[in-house]
Amino acid sequence: MSDPTALAALEAEVTSCRACPRLVEWRERVAREKRASHRHEEYWGRPTPGFGDPAARVLVLGLAPAAHGGNRTGRIFTGDRSGDFLFAGLHRAGFANQPTSVHRDDGLELRDCFITAAVRCAPPANRPLPEERERCAGWLERELDLIATPRVVLCLGAFAWEAALRIPALADGPPPRPRPRFGHGAEFRRLLGCFHPSQQNTFTGKLTPSMLDAALARARERAEEPFG
């Protein structure tokens, strides 16, 4: 069973984390300097916790908050183009009550879906270091202890796929050898691969709305399969 009260307490811990000096310096510098289009806004500038339905059967695992997206709004995938693409798909699939997400208090609700990230701070060039991923793994493990165990993990990109393989509760055991390769539509135990909804992928057609819809449909199908 999920524990919303304990999740709120964990969120307070996550948002005060300063374990990675490089990420702390970057996220706070971005929050001070800001992007011109957001210069009148107060940036979040802290780690972003997971959010959504604590009893979710589907876990969506991303890479990290965007410098001017989640690092600005305080919620992963909120306020950037990647999030626009993802939440539109989640809405079409019935996992979200609205197709857009612009700030933490915009009324967005997730149903049977919980979204989190492998790394909780915006990294320079959107590239976390392996040791930063390892430090952040503890937050994900603690989230998993407090929510209903997800039946499916939709890994958005190779970084999220690799991070999930390193979490025994998600990979259903120790990291497998050899590693199963990431790909769009790849499946390994409860993991399901999907290209990341970055502009690099969505603007070039590497990830299309229909491809995302198919991945989300497969996630729901897997979530509804009987145990055993």
Identify the notable features of this structure and list them briefly:
single chain; 228 residues; alpha/beta; Uracil-DNA Glycosylase, subunit E; six-stranded mixed beta sheet; 9 helices; 6 strands; 39% helix
Contiguous helical run count: 9
Biggest sheet details: 6 strands, mixed
Q: What oligomeric arrangement do these chains adopt?
A: single chain
Radius of gyration: 16 Å
Kindly, what is the distance between the CA atoms of the first and last residues, rounded to a whole number of angstroms? 20 Å
Q: What would you call the structural class? A: alpha/beta
Q: What would you call the shape? A: globular
Walk me through this protein's architecture.
- By secondary structure, the protein is of the alpha/beta class.
- It has one domain: Uracil-DNA glycosylase-like domain (Uracil-DNA Glycosylase, subunit E, 3-Layer(aba) Sandwich), CATH 3.40.470.
- The protein has helices at 4-14, 21-33, 70-73, 81-92, 130-146, 158-165, 168-171, 199-202, 209-223; strands at residues 51-52, 58-62, 113-117, 152-156, 187-188, 191-194.
- Helix 1 runs antiparallel to helix 5.
- It is globular and about 50 Å long.
Mind sketching the topology for me?
Layout: H1 4-14, H2 21-33, E1 51-52, E2 58-62, H3 70-73, H4 81-92, E3 113-117, H5 130-146, E4 152-156, H6 158-165, H7 168-171, E5 187-188, E6 191-194, H8 199-202, H9 209-223
Parallel strand pairs: 2-3, 2-4, 4-6
Antiparallel strand pairs: 1-3, 5-6
Helix pairs in contact: 1-5, 4-9
